[in-house]
Amino acid sequence: MSLAPVGTGHYLVLSAALLAIGCAGLLLRRNVIVILMSIELMLNAVNINLVAFSGHWRHVTGQVFAIFVITVAVAEAAVGLGILIALFRNRGTVLADEIDLLKW
User: Fold this and answer.
1) Interatomic CA distance for residues 91 and 64, integer angstroms
2) pLDDT at site 92
3) Which stretches of the chain score pLDDT less than 50?
4) Which whole-number Å values give the CA distances from 43 to 3, 46, 73, 92, 93, in the listed order?
5) What is the structure's pLDDT at 100?
6) DSSP 3-state of 91
7) CA gap 55, 5 in Å, rounded
8) List of residues 6+ apart from 23 with CB closer than 8 A
9) CA triplet 26, 29, 33: central angle to 5 degrees?
10) What is the dihedral of CA 36, 40, 43, 44, to 10 degrees?
11) Which of 7, 47, 59, 61, CA to CA, is 20 to 30 A from 68?
């Protein structure tokens, strides 16, 4: 029994599924931590696309861009969690609907 090779289309389907799950989590959830995790899922979907097309075209540019996206995602997570901890200490909640510090 032989297994079928994994092609670029398989990676694109996986990436589309991750993007859909991330978009659903971003639009349907109220918890800010879940929203940040959904954004990370969407960034990982982009990384899968970049690496899949990099392998398909036999060029390392997509892999280099994926490393930059990972770097930006780490910075976004660090800053976002820092802001979230400060908001939780001030407001006592992590629900997106109840964070209205910038309103008058």
Assistant:
1) 40
2) 86
3) none
4) 30, 5, 7, 29, 26
5) 75
6) helix
7) 14
8) 38, 42
9) 80
10) -160
11) 7
State the pTM of this model: 0.86
Question: For the chain, what are the domain ranges?
Answer: 8-98
Take residue 83 and report the two structure tokens written for it: 């802001």
Rounded to an integer, what distance in angstroms lies between the CA atom of residue 48 and that of residue 60? Answer: 14
The residue type at 86: A
Q: 31 pairs with which residues across the strands?
A: 95
At position 22, the amino acid (one-letter code) is G
Q: If you count DSSP H runs as helices and E runs as strands, how many of each does the chain have, helices first? A: 3, 0
Annotation: CATH topology of 8-98: Helix Hairpins (1.10.287)
